[in-house]
Write a structure and sequence with these properties.
The complex is a heterodimer of chains A (394) and B (324). Chain A has 394 residues and is mainly alpha-helical. Chain A is built from 17 helices and 4 strands. Classes of the chains: A mainly alpha (394), B alpha/beta (324).
C-alpha cells in the first residue's frame, strides 16, 4: 500500500509543479463560473431567495380559463414563490421582458378560453429573454403545467358531463374547479423548478463538473506519459506490482477530481456566492460524480496509443458531456431526445442531485442520482481498469 | 551486495543469472529465438550485437518488464516473471532510454525509485547520498532533472539502477548519445561495480566498451546467440590471425622468405616501410621472427602487433560489419 501512496504523492507533486491541474481544476472554472453567473445569473445576490417576476398580458378578457390562469398565478404570488405584474397588451409585455422589468411573460391570446371549450387548439405564449435560460425554462414549465391542468380539467369535466349532462361552459367551470382541488400537483411542480439552484450555484456546479472531467483523466494520462518517458518500464522492473501501479493511477484521478471540485466549491462559496447545502450529502454526490467521470474518461482515453491522443479524446468527451449534461445551459425536462441523452452523462445526474438537495430532504431526495452516479462509476471504472492493463508494458 | 528488503534469501547457487531458451515474438517476427546464457557473481557479461538484434527485448524479459513467450529466467535461484515482484529487487535495471521525472529533482528521483525498491528511512537517505556522490551530482541534487545536460541525466539514470545495491546490474546501451567525458565516467563506474562483486549484464554495439569491460561476451544477431566466450576464446573460435607490422631496412624480400618458413606464420610480405606478417599468435612468435630478421641482416626500427578484435569476429560469424 505504501508503494501506491508514494506513486500518488510523486504524481501530485509533478502535477502541482506543472500547474496545468491548478489551471483546469480551479482557476479556469472560477473564471468561467464568474463570467457565466455574471452574464446569466443573479450575481452576488444569493442571500435573497430566488423570486422570479412574471408578466401577464391577457387578451382573452373575461374568458373563464384565462382568468383561471391569472388566478393561479396570483395564488403563487401570494405564497411568495413568484411576483406577477399585469400588462395591457402583447407589446407592453414584450417591452417589459426586453427591458428586464420582468424575468419572463405569458401572453394569452384573444379567444383562448372559447377555443379550449370548443376543443380547438390554442396556446399560451411564453415571452422570454434568451439571455436568461433558467427563467425561460421555468416559464415554459409553468405554461406546460397549465396545459396539462386544462387537459385533466377537460377530462374531469367530460366525465361529469356524461354523468350529469352539463353544458360545455359548465363543464369547463367544473373542470377548473376540479383542477384547483389538488393544487399540490401544480404547485409542487413549480416549486421543483424554482427550488433549482440559483444562478451562481448553478453555474458554479456546472463549471466545476465541466472542468473536473478535464482533470480526472490525469491518472490514465500519467500512465501513458510514464510509458512514453520509459519510467513505467522502470517501475515495472521494481518490486512494485503492475496492479499497484494501476491502483495508484486511478486513486490519483479520484483524489484530483474530488480535490479540485472541493476546492472550487470552497472558493466559489466566497468569491461567487454559490450556496452549497447539506455538505455531507453534497460530498457523496461529488465523489460519485468524480468516480463516474473518471471511469468514462479513462475508458475513452484508455483506447489512445499516446498521451497526446488521450488528451484529445478526453477533451472531446469533456465538451460533449458538458453540453449534453446541461452544465452551461439547462437541458429542458420532459422526453425530448436531448433530455434523454443527457441522462447518459454524470453531469446531468450531478446537477439534478444538487438541485434536488437544494430544497432540503437530505440523502433521501438524492438517492436516485447518487445510485445512478455510483452505478456509472462502478461499471466504467471496472471496464477501464481491465482496459488499462494493456498499457502496462514498456 | 546487501540483501534488498523484502527479497528472498539468495540461492546458494553461484550463479546470479541463468537464462534458458528465452523466446519472444511480435506477431510474425521472432525477436528472440531461444537464447541461453548465465552470469556468475562479479562477472561482467557483454551482450554484443547490432541494432535490432534482440538485445533490448532480451534484457526487458530478464528484468521482468516484458513477458517471455517461452524459456526461463532464474535470478539468484528464483524463477523470475513479470509478476514475481519480490525477486525483482535483486536486479538493478538501467534502460537504454533515460527514464527520469523531469519535474522532480535528482534527489527526489532517487528517493522515489529507492522507495519503489523497498528502501526507506536511514538506508534510503544514505544510499541517495552515496549515489549522488558516485554519479558526481551531489552539488546538483536539488535541481530538477529537466535542467540537466544529457550526460548528467545518463549518470543519474545509471545511479537509479545502483540505488538498492542489486546482485545483478543490467545496463542496456548506457552510453548511447553520451559525450566522451561522460562515457568514460560511466565505464569507470561500471568497472568499479564489477570490482565490488556486482554481476553486470552489459549490452552495447560498441566493441571497445565490451573489450574494455567484459569478462565474457555473447554475440547476438537476429535474435540468436551465435557465439559466446571470452574475447580470446571468440577470436580463436573463428580462427582469426594477428597481423604484425615491422618497420625495417635491408634485404626485406629475403627476410620475408625466411620468416615464412617459421611455424605459425601464414603470410609474409614486403611493404613500403618494411614487412607485414599474418600469424596465429604473435606473442610467442616474435623472438623467432627477430632472430630470422637478424640472420638476414635486416635492421628493425619498429614493430606493431594488431590482434583481431570482436568486430572481425562478428564479421566472420555474420558476414557483415557490426554497424551495418
Amino acid at each position: 500500500m505504501r508503494d501506491i501512496a508514494w506513486i500518488v504523492l510523486k504524481d501530485l507533486r509533478q502535477q502541482v509543479r506543472d500547474r496545468t491541474i491548478l489551471i483546469f481544476g480551479l482557476i479556469a472554472p472560477l473564471a468561467i463560473a464568474a463570467a457565466l453567473s455574471l452574464a446569466f445569473g443573479n450575481f452576488f445576490q444569493t442571500d435573497e431567495s430566488v423570486v422570479f417576476e412574471f408578466g401577464i398580458a391577457n387578451a382573452d378578457t373575461g374568458g373563464p380559463i384565462s382568468e383561471g390562469f391569472s388566478m393561479a398565478m396570483g395564488d403563487l404570488e401570494t405564497e411568495g414563490l413568484i411576483e406577477v405584474t399585469f400588462h395591457r397588451n402583447r407589446a407592453s409585455l414584450d417591452r417589459a421582458v426586453e427591458e428586464g422589468v420582468v424575468d419572463a411573460g405569458f401572453f394569452i391570446p384573444h379567444g383562448f378560453s372559447d377555443a379550449i371549450v370548443e376543443g380547438s387548439e390554442s396556446r399560451v405564449i411564453v415571452v422570454a429573454n434568451p439571455d436568461a435560460p433558467v427563467v425561460a425554462g421555468v416559464a415554459t414549465s409553468i405554461a406546460e403545467q397549465f396545459a396539462l391542468e386544462i387537459a385533466s380539467a377537460s377530462a374531469a369535466g367530460a366525465t361529469v358531463a356524461i354523468l350529469g349532462g352539463l353544458s360545455p361552459e359548465q363543464m369547463v367551470q367544473v373542470g377548473l374547479a376540479a383542477s384547483r382541488i389538488p393544487p399540490p400537483a401544480r404547485v409542487a411542480s413549480l416549486e421543483a423548478e424554482i427550488r433549482q439552484l440559483d444562478g451562481p450555484t448553478y453555474y458554479s456546479a456546472g463549471t466545476a463538473m465541466f472542468f473536473m472531467v478535464f482533470v480526472v483523466g490525469v491518472g490514465i494520462l500519467s500512465l501513458l506519459e510514464e510509458r512514453r518517458r520509459h519510467t513505467l518500464a522502470r517501475l515495472l522492473s521494481s518490486p512494485t506490482g503492475p496492479g499497484r501501479i494501476l491502483a495508484a493511477k486511478f486513486l490519483l484521478s479520484f483524489m484530483v477530481g474530488v480535490g479540485s471540485v472541493g476546492l472550487f466549491m470552497l472558493f466559489s462559496r466566497f468569491l461567487l456566492g454559490a450556496r452549497w447545502v447539506d455538505l455531507p450529502v453534497t460530498a457523496l454526490l461529488v465523489m460519485a460524480a468524480v468516480g463516474a467521470s473518471a471511469g468514462i474518461v479513462s475508458l475513452v482515453a484508455g483506447w489512445a496509443r499516446t498521451a497526446e491522443q488521450a488528451q484529445n479524446f478526453q477533451s472531446v468527451v469533456a465538451v460533449a458531456m458538458g453540453i449534453l449534461g446541461g452544465t452551461f445551459f439547462p437541458i429542458s425536462g420532459g422526453d425530448s431526445l436531448l433530455a434523454t441523452l443527457s441522462l447518459g452523462t454524470p453531469h446531468a445526474w450531478f446537477m439534478r442531485g444538487l438541485g434536488d438537495l437544494s430544497g432540503g430532504g437530505g440523502l433521501a431526495v438524492v438517492a436516485l442520482p447518487l445510485a445512478v452516479l455510483t452505478g456509472m462509476a462502478v461499471v466504467t471504472l471496472t471496464i477501464s481498469v481491465l482496459g488499462a492493463r494493456r498499457n502496462l508494458r514498456p | 551486495m546487501n540483501t534488498p528488503l523484502n527479497a528472498p534469501a539468495p540461492d546458494p547457487s553461484p550463479l546470479v543469472l541463468q537464462v534458458e531458451d528465452l523466446r519472444k515474438s511480435y506477431g510474425e517476427i521472432q525477436a528472440v529465438k531461444g537464447i541461453t546464457f548465465e552470469i556468475a557473481p562479479g562477472e561482467n557479461y557483454g551482450l554484443l550485437g547490432p541494432n535490432g538484434a534482440g538485445k533490448t527485448t532480451t534484457i526487458q524479459m530478464i528484468a521482468g518488464v516484458l513477458e517471455a513467450d517461452g524459456g526461463r529466467v532464474t535470478v539468484c535461484g528464483g524463477e523470475l516473471t513479470t509478476t514475481t515482484t519480490s525477486l525483482k529487487s535483486h536486479i538493478g535495471w538501467v534502460p537504454q532510454e533515460v527514464a527520469l521525472y523531469d519535474r522532480l529533482t535528482a534527489r527526489e528521483n532517487l528517493a522515489f525509485f529507492g522507495r519503489m525498491q523497498g528502501l526507506s528511512g536511514k538506508r534510503l537517505a544514505r544510499r541517495v547520498d552515496e549515489v549522488l556522490q558516485l554519479t558526481g551530482l551531489s552539488d546538483r541534487a536539488g535541481d530538477k532533472t529537466i535542467k540537466f545536460s544529457g550526460g548528467m541525466r545518463r549518470r543519474l539514470n545509471i545511479g537509479i539502477g545502483l540505488l538498492h545495491e542489486p546482485d545483478l546490474l543490467i545496463l542496456d546501451e548506457p552510453t548511447v548519445g553520451v559525450d566522451v567525458q561522460s562515457r568514460a565516467s560511466i565505464l569507470d563506474q561500471v568497472a568499479e561495480m564489477t570490482r565490488q562483486g556486482m554481476a553486470v549484464l552489459y549490452t552495447t554495439h560498441y566493441i571497445e566498451e565490451v573489450e574494455r569491460l567484459c569478462n565474457r561476451v555473447g554475440i547476438i544477431d537476429h535474435g540468436e546467440l551465435i557465439a559466446e566466450g571470452t574475447r580470446t576464446e571468440l577470436v580463436r573460435m573463428v580462427g582469426e590471425r594477428d597481423r604484425v607490422l615491422i618497420t625495417a631496412e635491408g634485404d626485406l624480400t629475403g627476410g620475408a622468405g625466411r620468416i615464412e618458413q617459421l611455424d605459425g606464420v601464414h603470410q609474409a610480405g614486403v611493404t613500403n616501410e618494411g614487412l607485414e606478417l599474418l600469424v596465429d599468435d604473435a606473442t610467442p612468435l616474435l623472438p623467432r621472427i627477430f632472430e630470422a630478421l637478424a640472420g638476414s641482416g635486416i635492421s628493425v626500427s619498429g614493430v606493431r602487433v594488431e590482434e583481431p578484435d570482436l568486430e572481425a569476429v562478428f564479421l566472420h560469424l555474420t558476414g557483415r560489419a557490426l554497424r551495418d
